[in-house]
Amino acid sequence: MADANHTSTQARPRSIAELRAVAQPDEVRARANAEHWTASLYLRDLSPYLTWTLLRTRVSANQVTGLMIMVGWATAAALLIPGVWGPLVALLLGQLQMLVDCSDGEVARWRNTRSPAGVFLDKVGHYTTEALIPVILGVRAAGLPIVGASWMWTTFGCTLALVIVINKALNDMVHVARAHGGLARLEDRRDASTAPGRRGLASLRRLARFLPFHRLYHSVELTMLAVVFGVVGIAIGQRPAFEILVAALLPLALLATVGHFVAILSSRRVRA
Question: Domain limits at 261?
Fold first, then answer.
């Protein structure tokens, strides 16, 4: 519970514990979709210290989100660095992006400045980062300079980016559809039941938990895969390694998106 004496005009928290109580309430830590596993694992333990520092400045929550966007774009750009070093830098920047992503909301909750603009900017950050990374993975698969048939790999990378964005947008489409249909907002909690209503689809959902390839398309997982294939590239060459990566990710992304669409349409989320 937040301290009853806390107000939006209080400039700084008196302790990290007080900051956690206000900026990391139970409803934030219990989110199923908005909270990445790295946040639960360790980033929420570190983010109050960054938030503490930010609250000592005049920077707004939306400006922190702007920083998150810039770090996300830098994550994608880092993949252009040759060899395994590019993926390693991207991995570190990807973790930094998620850390800043934790802090922007904490700054907003402490100062009581949450707004639709902040949510919009957060969506911009994640959508653009997770679109740029596969595009640049395609560039790595094509090799530089890009000539002749190499453009096929940049096309694959752009197609992968499009599929990932569509898959991400499906969740937002659910909220838009419910709002237009006059339905209540869905709670983003791990204990909220949104499973498909049909037995066969529920079985496929359980199978997906054992083979969670549909979770590969977040910026964190993509940078982790880039590091793995960057290491493989030391042995077989960077270009062939990333050709394998992009060639594997594209059909799996298509399968994940189709499955996601069917699961939503068959679930209670879009039922009146």
Answer: 16-270
